[in-house]
Amino acid sequence: MDIFGEFLGTAILILLGNGVVAGVVLPRTKSHAAGWIVITMGWGLAVTMAAFISGTIAPAHLNPAVSLAFALKGDISWATALIYSLAQVLGAMVGSLMVYLQFKPHYDVAQEPGDILATFATGPALPNLFSNFLSEVLGTLILVLAILTIGTYDMPAGLATIGVGLLVISIGLSLGGTTGYAINPARDFGPRLLHAILPIKQKGDSDWTYSWIPVLGPIVGGFLAIFLFNLMM
Predict the structure, then answer these.
(1) CA neighbor of 57 nearest in space, from 78, 84, 33
(2) Residue 1's pLDDT is what?
(3) Directed axis angle between helix 157-175 and helix 36-54, to 10°?
(4) pLDDT score recorded for residue 114
(5) 3: part of which helix (H) or strand (E)?
(6) Nearest to 93 by CA among 179, 13, 176, 201
(7) DSSP 178
(8) What is the pLDDT of residue 56?
(9) Separation CA 61–CA 135 (nearest Å)
């Protein structure tokens, strides 16, 4: 059930998260051009809702960077972390497919390949390997460190889940504007792979040369969070 929970939760996360991106970026939607604040709010609420739903049947990691960090900490086995990560990637692909199916008429009239890709995966505002990688490392470091420290407080699980959602909004507003803040390898890799597969008009390239940054950066950030947390405890 844990594996299904990670799959379902990540699918919901991407459906709601990439759904708000599609609404803002694609032409002729009622939310077109609503802006970055709407996107960050959408992602924060997506994390909260996905965690509430999947948390009843799974740990609600929803993120390989979190699962691998917890394996490094010793809370779960590496094998479990890898299985969770696979379920999360597959869930991300399904969630992204649902976004595509709902917004297909808007994809059909979209003319900008970059906008189409943005509804699936992240990309830099200004390409700079060091800055882009650092953005993903720092964002995920804060995310995982906060998850770990929240766990040390005696608070209701629902309140902690809301806190993580608010944190995702904060990270997006503060640090996410340079890369679109994946802070989650599954969130980027799964939908990017789907973008490469789907026959979308005017979709252009899937930008695989950049794709390693939103995968490796969050993993490094998660591992650094474990190191800092251990120093604090």
Answers:
(1) 84
(2) 62
(3) 150
(4) 97
(5) helix 2-25
(6) 13
(7) G
(8) 66
(9) 21
* Residue 131: both structure tokens together: 């800055």
Q: How far is CA 4 from CA 46, 129, 134, in A?
A: 18, 35, 32
The Cα angle at residue 175 between residues 10 and 224, in degrees rounded to 5: 70
The first and second tokens of residue 119, run together, are 């509804």
- Residue 152: the pLDDT is 78
Tell me which residues of the chain have a pLDDT lower than 50: none
**How confident is the prediction for the chain on average, in pLDDT?**
95
Tell me, rounded to whole angstroms, the distance of Cα 111 from its chain centroid: 25
Cβ pair 135, 171 in contact under 8 A? no
C-alpha 150/C-alpha 78 separation (Å) is 23
Question: Which residue do the tokens 């992240």 mark?
Answer: 122
- For residue 108, CA distances in Å to 102, 111, 113, 132, 214 come to 12, 8, 12, 31, 27
Percentages helix, strand, coil for the chain (3-state, rounded to 5) are 70, 0, 30
pLDDT at 156: 83
What pLDDT, on the 0 to 100 scale, is given for residue 74? 96
pTM for the model stands at 0.96
- Hey, is 66 helix, strand or coil? helix
Rounded CA-CA distance 207/193 in Å is 10
Closest CA to 15 of 191, 192, 168: 191
- Specify whether the CB–CB gap between 68 and 81 falls below 8 A: yes
Which strand (E) or helix (H) includes residue 105?
Answer: helix 104-109
Buried b (16+ CB within 10 A) or exposed e, 66-83: bbbbbbbbeebeeebbeb
Tokens of 206: 């899937």
